[in-house]
Amino acid sequence: MFSPEGPSLRELAVQAFSSVERGYDLLAPKFDHTPYRTSDRILDATSAALRPFGPFDDGLDVCCGTGAGLRVLRPLCRGRVTGVDFSAGMLAEARRAHPDAEWIRVDARRPPFAAEFDLAVSFGAFGHFLATDRPALFTGVHRALRSGGLFAFPVFAPPRISSRSYWVPAGFDAAMRIRNAVWRPPFVMYYRTFPLRAVRAELTAAGFTVRTTVLPGFGRRPDGAPYARLVVARKD
User: Tell me, what's a Pfam family for it (predicted)?
Assistant: First the structure.
């Protein structure tokens, strides 16, 4: 699961019994050597899908982690590129890897921006938000964008209930709920709490016009539905 440069089981255990912020501070130096880092394949597919909508001026990576999203923003944005995250450890790694970008420690539900960006992206972060947090998150991104700006992120079709890919994340979510019921501080990380129908409605309520586009190269399910889509939400 991890490369030799990745975290040990002991380090993962310490992270799991920390808060989300503290856990990612601890994981940050080795994060890019774990499967949790968004793959270049997903980033490149997102960049290709967004290219017809651009070019853009200023770009924002929401919950940026160690800065992988710059692989998308840099080719598409002509102006400044900014990443926001609440983990100081993740931001320190992002600064080391990309010193020419702007990195700000902030709660993504309350970003300190007003009409400053033309494109916002996010990768692999939504499992750290409870459903009750999403409206504030989407409203904050909407406020940060200029009129006509886009908020984009990939989503993947749920696996078949008969598959291992269905039961592994379902089991993880169940274990996380038990952990959070008996241990403090909570560690919010759930894989199956981001249904596209609900997310689309919440984005619309925040003021976005929402569409999706297929990300090619990830195949289709037996029923013909694509495995991967890009949500493209435009600020009206």
Answer: Methyltransf_25
